[in-house]
Amino acid sequence: MTVRTRVAPSPTGDPHVGTAYVALVNSCFAKKQGGCFVLRVEDTDRARSTRESEEAILESLHWLGLAWDEGPDIGGPHGPYRQSERSASYREHAAQLLAEGHAFKCFCTPERLEEMRVAQRAAHQPPHYDGHCLHLTPREIAEKEAAGIPSVVRLKVPSEGSCIFDDLLRGRIEIEWKTVDMQVLMKSDGFPTYHLANVVDDHAMEITHVIRGEEWISSTPKHLLLYRSFGWTPPAFCHLPLLRNPDRSKLSKRKNPTSILYYRKQGYPAEALLHFLGTLIDARNDDQGLIGRGSSTRERTALLLEHFGEQFELTHISVGGPVFDIPKLRWLCGQWIRRQTPAQFLQLLHEWGYEWPRAIAPEKREHVARVAMERIELLSDFAPLVEFLAEPPDLARQDMALQNLPEEDVRGALESAIENLIPLVGDSWNQAAIGEALKKSAGDAGFKLKDVVRFFYVAVTGKPTSLPLFDGMEILGKEESLRRFELAVEKLH
Ligand code: GLU
Fold first, then answer.
1. What ligand 1 atom has the least distance to the C-alpha of 198?
2. Is there a catalytic annotation at residue 448?
3. Mind listing the pLDDT tens digit for each residue in 80-131?
């Protein structure tokens, strides 16, 4: 038997990091077993599904380096891989369930269903269909249909006993049938609900392992009932823990950004986010040795996926609920960035869409990259760090009000810096010589460099910390650096 897994996103919003997490587990499991990983688009919710969302989901998963063996974009032997293109199959299967007595037509109006829900709420009962149309005779059905009353198809559910199934991660799960609702399988618009389409497709696509989020555990009895009604062997089920906020609540966009697009735009490198997702699956993937291998993003994500695939064991997944800890993710991004060569880092910036200010000449960019990559976590930290190289800071007198140092002392140190920097000409305008000159300036003014260096920083960059100052000044050039010291002195007159 070839192992076949799938991820089945619904294209109803931004690509969610949880989808990437589930996709990664499915991809690793299939890889480890020498199987196939399928991507299927579950767009049965006609009101909420959009093509833009589908494209964004596929694009984001690709950006993370994930790939599938069959899917709507690449086809495959079990296509189409978009549920909106498989309607005929769902209609046939619903008709079969009706004909064999596993499902029934329900003509209840939305008003009646609402009344029923209100009454159930008042009686402190969980909402469930009350079986009103369960025993309609063929004649009653025919009459209602002749009168043009719209209907849905609902699943017949046993009223007694329990559904028992094995979960690969959680072991035996038992759910009483009386808690399972008579699920709508086909809506009045002729489209299936998730439950019918999902089961019909998992069977048609020969999925052997359904690995999905734990929010689907309570739906599994309905699915098993469908498999039984059709006479099909069900796949193995595995319900993954939900990603959590640090306070252990379910990861939600009210507390944390959940869209992959957000992380991409903010300059979280794809490989770092993928690595982080890998650590959420199995803490053993925290291996720092993984960082930085591979010369391009594509190669790096491919190597990571290979490694995760080799290591992968379902039993390593903790059921506790992995925490989506953004400070840890940011730290990991910084680690990834620092393990690149400056040339690779420039490539990362370019892929991310960073546009260099024209004032930073191309031949200086590698030097800028080399010093900046030590001080950032995200690619979006880069621009604010280097903007002083393109534009002089807009200094105000109070920017120099630091460390309670009298203004005349600050002025003295800045003037001494100008004096000591002037003799550096040609190649001697380099960070080592600049460092020496500034050290001497501090001494000449009666200070140690560490007492006054923040004023030098402010003069050159506008902020008390920034890129390493001597490198910053080397990159900026002598003329511009001196001009900035002079402007700062002027402010203090
Ligand atoms: N379309 C469902 C979702 O959005 C798929 C659930 C499943 O994997 O069965 O999560």
1. 9
2. no
3. 999 999 999 999 999 999 999 999 999 999 999 999 999 999 999 999 999 9
What is the Rg, in whole angstroms, of the alpha carbon atoms belonging to the chain?
32
In a domain, 317, yes or no: no
Average pLDDT over residues 16-36: 97
Active-site residue (options: 178, 253, 463, 478):
253
9 lines ligand 1 (CB under 6 A): yes
Using alpha carbons, select from 178, 165, 222 the residue that is nearest to residue 198.
222
Q: Which of 191, 223, 240 is the last residue of a domain?
A: 240
199 Cβ below 6 A of ligand 1: no
Domain count for the chain, please give it: 2
3-state helix, strand, coil in the chain (%, to 5): 55, 10, 35
C-alpha span between 48 and 190 (Å, rounded):
16
Ligand 1 in reach of 42 Cβ (< 6 A): yes
SS3 267: coil
CA distance linking residue 454 with residue 464, whole number of Å = 5
Residue 143 lies in a domain: yes
490, 392 Cβ separation under 8 angstroms: no
Residues 6 or more apart whose CB falls under 8 angstroms from that of 352 comprise 267, 379
Cβ count within 10 A of residue 6: 29
CATH at 236: 3.40.50.620
Range of the domain at 402: 397-491
Domain end position, chosen among 240, 274, 290: 240
Least confident of 135-149, 174-188, 265-279, 292-306: 292-306
pTM: 0.93
Which residues lie closer than 8 Å to 299 by C-beta, 6 or more apart?
A: none
Report the relative pairing of strands 209-213 and 236-240 from DSSP bridges. Answer: parallel
> 343 in a domain, yes or no?
no
Coil, strand or helix: which one is 487?
helix
Residue 202: how many CA atoms within 13 Å on its side-chain side? Answer: 29
Domain-located, residue 173: yes
Tokens 């080799």 correspond to: 310
CB-neighbour burial class of residue 357 (10 A; exposed 0-12, middle 13-18, buried 19+) = exposed
Q: What is the C-alpha to C-alpha distance for residues 294 and 435, in angstroms, rounded to an integer? A: 35
